Amino acid sequence: MTATAVVMMIIAMVTVWGGLIAAVVNLARHPEVAEAEPAPPVEL
């Protein structure tokens, strides 16, 4: 592999893995709170 290919591969890997790590950290800090059971539909 050429040096350019290695640099581009590293940039791509940092982008993908960095985004994954950022998403996991974000969910760990701000977990999605499940709402209570939805109300039953109102029949007319």
Automatic annotation (TrEMBL):
The keyword Transmembrane applies. InterPro entries: MaAIMP_sms (IPR031596). Keywords: Membrane, Transmembrane, Transmembrane helix. It comes from the Bacteria. It holds the Pfam family MaAIMP_sms. The chain crosses the membrane at residues 6-28. The keyword Transmembrane helix applies. This is Methionine/alanine import family NSS transporter small subunit. It comes from Microbacterium bandirmense.
